[in-house]
Amino acid sequence: MHIAKRLAQVQPSATLAMSQKSAQLKAAGADILNLSVGQPDFATPKPICDAAIAAIQSGKASYYTAATGLPELRSAIAAHIKANTGFEYGKDQIVVTNGAKFALYALFTAILSEGDGVLLPQPGWVSYTEQVRLAGGIPQPVYAKDGFKVTIDDLDAVATDRTRAIVINSPQNPSGTVYSRQELTLIGNWAVRHDVLIVSDEIYSDLVYNGNSFTSMLELDPQIAANTVLIDGVSKSYAMTGWRIGFAAAPKKIAQAMATIISHATGNPAAASQYAALEAYTGSQQPVFDMRDAFAERLNTFYPLIKAIPGFELDQKPEGAFYLFPKVTGAVKALGYDSVDTFVTALLEETGVALVPGRAFGMPDHVRLSYATDMDTLIEAAKRITDFVNSSN
Ligand SMILES: Cc1ncc(COP(=O)(O)O)c(C=O)c1O
User: Fold this and answer.
1) Which one of 18, 125, 207, 229 would you pick to mutate in the ligand 1 pocket, going by the greatest count of ligand atoms within 8 A of its CB?
2) What architecture does CATH give domain 48-282?
3) 3-state DSSP helix/strand/coil percent for the chain, to nearest 5?
4) Cα–Cα distances in Å, from 67 out to 76, 94, 247, 283?
5) 357 DSSP β-pair partners
6) pLDDT given at position 393
7) Which residues line ligand 1 (CB under 6 A)?
8) 156-196 pLDDT per residue, tens
9) What is the pLDDT of residues 364-393, one digit of tens each?
10) Which of 15, 101, 132 has most ligand 1 atoms within 8 Å of CB, for mutation?
11) Are 247 and 215 in contact, with CB atoms under 8 Å apart?
12) Which candidate among 93, 153, 268, 336 keeps its CA 20 to 30 Å from the CA of 180?
């Protein structure tokens, strides 16, 4: 039995592994507080569910759609992008996929030849690295000299003549960092100058809090926008992770290449989910604002509790997404563990609190805590972590 060579270096998703481990412990009766998942705990808003039900009952969800998605959904996504950023796409530039995850997978497969590089600012979402590898590319991790935001000096230090793309994820998973317009403009101009495609993963763009503002790559100079592939979807903004609808908005040539891949790989995403997404983009946006406000309240409660834990360093309050990413080596050492990974395992086994080790995001001194769960769980989890860390004293 043979497994393809290209899988030799690819790791399974650490976040999914942690979620599964805590689900198993929970099923066995343990009192688990799961802060490892990257999904909103809210139910999908009712009008969106109703649209899917109506599509199923009318029979129109029974059939294949175009591989790249329903034309009316692609038009609605183009209109949504235009309203938010001013940038105009034709509907043939929108490729609807099985989650943003598959949009990225199809994109890397479409643009990378063997040995091509992709700049990946760290910390960064766990799947970029492995998807680049699966597509035959070379992940080029970029560490900021300071903090979590890379600058063009950091990019210059890592880029090679085989660098084909850079992934910018703002707001960022796992740190909640949001790049300013000025920072994005510098990176955007750098990418244009070096003929490096910008992959702008804006899946958390609706989740920015406390008066901070979000800038899309598409709002900048038109040359930057024309050199960008936007990645987005309904998972985080509309509490629709289970529906599996994401999209890429891309220059025509890239959209066509992705369409070819998708036509052979998945065909269209589930038609009922597409009708649900159509309602999400064209219906009232009030549920998005309400969920954003709830996340902001959780952040404002949870952040000071975690920041106050001895040996947890979290100077910068996150501006967006729904994660905290403290450095925890102080606590790990004080408790006598040899790594953050063993600390996270002990925390889960002894207190029932599930986190994700920072190694999964390229920074092994950190942990990621998701606050996409209810306030009581967050307060209780902060208490259990605090007690666990204080147990060394
Ligand atoms: C940064 C980032 N991009 C993309 C995704 C993929 O989202 P989905 O496939 O649910 O649309 C996630 C999900 O966790 C994410 O955190």
Assistant:
1) 125
2) 3-Layer(aba) Sandwich (3.40)
3) 50, 15, 40
4) 17, 11, 12, 24
5) 367
6) 55
7) 38, 99-101, 125, 169, 173, 201, 203, 233, 235, 241, 246
8) 999 999 999 999 999 999 999 999 999 999 999 999 999 99
9) 999 999 999 999 999 999 999 999 999 865
10) 101
11) no
12) 93
Token output for 343: 């600390």
Are 5-43+287-390 and 48-282 in the same CATH fold? no
Closest atom of ligand 1 to CA, residue 124: 1
> What's the CA-to-centroid distance between 123 and ligand 1, angstroms?
15
Calculate how far, in angstroms, residue 330's C-alpha sits from the geometric centre of ligand 1.
30
Cα 101 to ligand 1 centroid, rounded to whole Å: 6
Query: For 209-224, how does the pLDDT look when each residue is reduced to its tens digit (9 = 90+)?
Result: 999 999 999 999 999 9
Structural tokens at position 155:
């990019």
Is 5-43+287-390 a CATH 3.90.1150.10 domain?
yes
247-302 tens-digit pLDDT = 999 999 999 999 999 999 999 999 999 999 999 999 999 999 999 999 999 999 99
* CA 314–ligand 1 middle distance (angstroms): 24
Best residue for ligand 1 mutational test, from 18, 231, 236 (most atoms within 8 Å of Cβ): 236
Per-domain residue ranges of the chain: 5-43+287-390, 48-282
Q: Tell whether the model's pLDDT for residue 16 goes beyond 60.
A: yes
Partnered with residue 233 across adjacent β-strands are 246
DSSP H or E stretch at residue 343: helix 340-351
Best residue among 130, 235, 274, 325 to mutate for probing ligand 1's pocket (most ligand atoms within 8 Å of CB) is 235
The closest of 16, 74, 3, 2 to 277, measured between CA atoms, is: 74
In one-letter notation, the amino acid at residue 129 is: T
Average pLDDT of every residue of the chain:
96
- Quick one: pLDDT at residue 392? 67
